Amino acid sequence: RHAIGRPVLRDAIVATEDRRFWRHFGVDPVGIAGAIRINLAEGRGPLEGHGGSTITQQVAKLLCLGNPYDPDSGMTEAEYEEDCRETTLARKIKEVPFALAMELKYSKEEILT
Fold it and tell me: pTM here?
């Protein structure tokens, strides 16, 4: 069994990363808006610092990093690496359909493991 499957660790991750994890559908507009508000109040750009991504969005982004580079994709390898690590609003928008699809296909418990 994965370590994250242990209730104490699972609950700690949810509490620190995505406290509304059990209630949202993979994307948390309230969390994103709150992160933008905090970042702007602290004098940063809207997505610099607090990102507001849900655990599901973070998993979607990590899965991008796990996919091998495809030379037939039309992207250079450097563009692929940059796209996977991008922290812009455009990148966050790209994560949305993947996060929504994950929530439809997998249970919350499966997403955490």
Answer: 0.76
